[in-house]
Amino acid sequence: MPSLNRTDIFPEMELPDSQRLMDDARRLAQEVSVGSCSFLAHYDVASESEYKRQCMAQNRIMLHAQVGYRSLDKSRRAYFEIYANLERAGYRVDRYGICLDWSMGYPAASRKDMPRGTGLILDSAKDFARLTQEAPVAPHFGDFVIGTPASVENTCAALMAGSTSIGNLGQYFTFRMPYWKDDIGVTAETVKAIALCAAQPVEILIHSNLDDGFASLFTDMACSIGAILLERTIVDELIGGRVSHCYGHTFSEAHTRLAFQRAMAKVTATPGSMVYGNTTIYGEGQVENYANLASYLLVDVLAQRLMPTGHGLNPVPVSEAMRIPEIDEIVEAHLFANRLIQRATSYESLLDLEKVDEIAEKLVEGGRKFYKNVLEGLAAAGIDTNSAFELLLAIRRIGARRLEELFGPGEQVQNQARGRAPLIQATTMASLAAQADQILNHFQAAEIDVLQKAGFRACVACTDVHEYGKMLVEIVLRRLGIGIVDAGVSVDPDVVANQAYVHRVDFIAISTYSGVALDYLQVLCDELTERGYPAPVFIGGKLNQVPDESLSSMPVDVSTKLQELGAYVCHRVETMIEVLILMADRKVD
Ligand code: B12
What we know:
alpha/beta
């Protein structure tokens, strides 16, 4: 296994000094402090973590809702109405995860012309505060604050709006803002923003959603416990802050979901931000999704009863896979959750925890090994592991795959993803392989044979952090003997066009989820035309966008417009294979 080398990771002669960045932030903290908001005043607490600790002591389960529509008015209405409807029913929503738009990650001065997703856009610090006055619910500014080029300005606005839980450190490691190439600047802003929070007189939780970071990409779940330890070293030990973790999207199996929560509790005493709903198991059937909701939420409820960790539980509305859930759908999911909590009284005693604790033990042991291996490996490569800046940037640049290959706790074996046997296998990766089997089973041996003989080469990319669609397409294409030029993740359309052109590929496969499908395809087509290389484009994922002139501010399907631009719209991978078989037939003829 080749080892790491500082000059490969940091070819730059000079990097910003961590200490200086933290000093700047401490000076800024003299001017920026936590403002008032309805939540802090109503519960008479200095911070959400104080409230969380009270809930833990009382064994009271906290609930989290995710809100954030493109328009501020609708988001304010959601902030108030969800709380009011639940209060009327005798229930409480404790915290809102405010879903900012990804364009909020750009500094305000350069935001105007940048691509937009489907989330909330706040034009000024005053707008942040207008939101948090609407109801006594803790404002958690979870995404596109810390970890982006706009880390410091967004953190200032969030603090002044009374937010004491701010993220998302997980995002820092994996998210790349389109057309933003300066990862050194992003890292410097990230260190400053964390240090600004650390310098506040009240405790600010630095939220990190593990699934937004590397957890959704590791094949071994133990590495995610290792990631918690690494982030704790960076935030708590090196910057003096307090990191707080979220998990859940991709934890689809009951034993490992419960075991992960118990393993986390063994490695950190800081209250968790939230347990995210298991969004990856949701499908199009809303009734079936109630079963999906119950299946993970019950585990989370019992986990909190057995060992309170302060996480807010997130009942994901059953429409999640189809669209951004409406206000009444969020309320319904919370009514369901509250009733489930009432019904699940004393279910804990039905559980046999021995197997779960065995898994938790392995997770902790493997996580500690991964943590130690990473720090030793980085130090051996010449990275200053006492510098928050260097640790952050090195880990981001190396990425999940390579870190797991080099430092994973599992035994080295050939023919296994990442070259290692996972101690506890992450469920999503296994399910992608099973999905690929199902897709290929649709086709006859003769059809597959035609494709295997066609000698096709494809350029594959995804437009944003959602990588599973791309991974699935790659598994299928590889098994069809199609060569792959990997243009990357969160990759700009000019880069895709260039890769396609340079490698003379036969077609391009794009997976997209963040509500940018139409604008992205338009630029890609222009770039291909400019190079005189009009390769066929297949596009799949969530094919929607918020129209510029939209009154509702909700995204609409753009499939027809994508077809008009000449792309093959694929709601299933099978659609692409059917077209490829025709292309292969023509090639053979
Ligand atoms: C998993 C997930 C995540 C994971 C991604 C992990 C990873 N590393 O990939 C994480 C947690 C990181 C994440 C983050 C976010 N997510 Co998300 N996520 C999802 C989720 C649950 C599943 C999407 C997925 O990967 N499916 C797996 C694939 C394999 O299956 P599939 O989607 O059914 O795809 C089929 C076809 O479409 C086809 N296909 C897909 N691509 C392609 C490409 C080609 C060429 C072909 C032929 C076929 C094809 O193959 C599949 C099988 O047939 C969806 C909701 C949902 N259930 O769809 C939301 C969803 C996509 N996310 C959403 C959002 C808003 C976000 C965030 C912005 C939230 C936030 N504020 O942080 C961030 C992204 C920020 C960014 N910069 O991009 C929204 C998008 C809204 C929209 N466009 O309307 C969704 C729809 C949820 C929702 N309802 O609000 N997310």
